Amino acid sequence: MIRVGTSGWQYRDWRGTFYPEKLPQKSWLEHYAARFATVEINNAFYRLPERDTFVTWRERTPDDFAVGVKMSRYLTHIKRLKDPAEPVKRFLDHAEGLGDRLGPVLVQLPPNLKAVPEDLAAVLAQFPRDVRVAVEPRHDTWWTPEIKAILEKHGAALSWADRLGRPTTPLWRTADWGYLRFHEGRATPRPRYGRSALRTWAGRLKEAFGTGADAYVYFNNDPGGAAVVDAEAFARVAGGAGLTPTRTP
């Protein structure tokens, strides 16, 4: 199925639109998880939460909920993929507190990091095969057959990404599952996505993975609640294309 959600859930400007005015913020996760079946956690990139925090998120969400977690920048931006064993182990020691709620781990690379195939392979080798990993390079030197082959070897998905209605990555299928991030649309009011753009992306997922597509789709255009509206719209479009999306509001 296509798991549709947003990148994060704790946005104050969602109060009064997605969250009821009088709903305390401490109950927002439960409200979110009743309406979406997945969320992407970005704050782990900046500061890795304690394992107990991940355990609490598991306890507060339903059995079918999946949490995608962004890899700590300590590995990607400070170590720049070097010496990955300790950073990956520490990250997993914490994130595995989610238990069966743990979805994919997103490894987003710095925009100025040029391709280092051997370092990418070393990083992916640190993850157990039962942990899904998506990789989002952001420098053009990564788009080579060698990089594609490394992702395929480790069963890692290339994270597809959209900005302003255009792909920022090649549309490689490197695993039997997919990962798609929407950063910023061109529709009004900005940064919303238009239906045409959403239909195009649903078609790309269908073409790459078939009607039984297994993919995670996250909207990162949070200002003004655009991500919530667009996630709901994408789910409708995906369903119309013959795909099977998870719940949305």
TrEMBL record:
Keywords from the named record: Kinase, Transferase
Query: What GO terms are given for molecular function?
Result: kinase activity
| InterPro entries from the UniProt entry | DUF72, UPF0759_sf
> According to the lineage, what is the superkingdom?
Bacteria
Under what name is this protein listed? Histidine kinase
List the taxonomic lineage.
Answer: Bacteria, Bacillati, Actinomycetota, Actinomycetes, Micromonosporales
